[in-house]
Amino acid sequence: MQIAVVDSDIQQRARITEILRNAEYQCTPLNGLEKLISDGASEVELVVYRWQPMAKGNRSLLTLRHHRPDLPMLLLASHSADHTLAECLNNTYTDYLVQPVRAADLRLRVKLLMMRLAPDRAPSTLMQFGRYSFDPTNWVARHDGKPMNLTRKEFGLALLLFSHLGQPLSRATIHEAVWPKTAEFSSRSLDTHIARVRRKFALQPEHGYRLSPVYGYGYVLEAIDFPGQNPQTQRV
Predict the structure, then answer these.
(1) Kind of pairing, strands 169-170 and 218-223?
(2) What is the pLDDT of residues 93-118, one digit of tens each?
(3) Which of 81, 146, 149, 162 could be cross-linked to 129 through a Cys-Cys bond (beta carbons 3.0 to 4.6 Å apart)?
């Protein structure tokens, strides 16, 4: 899978490129979007672009979108949006991640984005967490090899929690990862989905896991003396 990492800041560009290459993606770091527009971006399967409010290159993103309407794009944006950003996000094939970007969040968002927008090009992997396994390509989770009955939101939420085992996740991070570009989102909706995931995955201490609220912040999934609790990802 070929990813174009576009950022005028050489240090930021190098950091994002390194994170994705460490996740075994092929990356082409670029200073701007001009090459993608002139070449048609035929070999590129995803564009990761650091959005800067009022930057001159932002309008070029709309030009690229015109040439490749189905090209998945991930915008790394601050909370300060402008009209052009809103126009870009109206496209189904465009998603965003709020800066500053953490390595684990970026890797997971790229995986989820390709699963959602281009499942035929998403990497085929099986993610194993103890007795649970996740097949991101087919949106299937298994417990001891048996398929679980999950909605896509529950699958995405559970995968996010297991992928950040022991790391507190803010409500905003969960929202951005599982409910991308969804305006109608509430804390009550998140709490309801958390309760369903806790019940369906039996995330209680007696089963080796604890899913707990972090007061004023979000949630954290912890492993408790559970054999094989460390996440392992294997190719299939």
Answers:
(1) antiparallel
(2) 888 887 888 887 888 788 777 776 66
(3) 162
Burial (CB count <10 Å: 0-12, 13-18, 19+), residue 142: middle
- CATH, residue 156: 1.10.10.10
Burial 157-192 (b: 16+ CB within 10 A, else e): bbbbbbbbbeeebebebbbbbbbbeeeeeeeeebee
Tokens, residue 103: 């390595």
In sequence order, the β-bridge partners of residue 221 are 211
Residue written as tokens 């099986």? 126
Task: Out of 117, 135, 168, pick the residue that ends a domain.
Answer: 117
What span, in angstroms and rounded, lies between the C-alpha atoms of 59 and 23? 30
Please give the C-alpha separations between residue 236 and each of 22, 110, 128, 152, 194, in angstroms, as whole numbers: 19, 19, 12, 21, 29
Residue 6 sits in the same domain as residue 113? yes
Q: Which two tokens stand for residue 128?
A: 């194993």
**123 cis-preceded (ω within 30 degrees of 0):** no
In 3D space, the residue among 181, 174, 179 whose CA is nearest the CA of residue 214 turns out to be: 174
Task: Looking at the structure, tell me whether residues 16 and 76 fall in a common domain.
Answer: yes
Domain with 146 in it: 125-235
Domain boundary among 117, 141, 160: 117
- Note the pLDDT tens digit of each residue in 176-233: 778 765 555 677 888 999 999 999 999 988 888 999 999 989 999 998 864 444 444 4
**Residue 203 class from Cβ within 10 Å (0-12 exposed, 13-18 middle, 19+ buried)?**
buried
Contact (CB, 8 A) for 165 and 222: yes
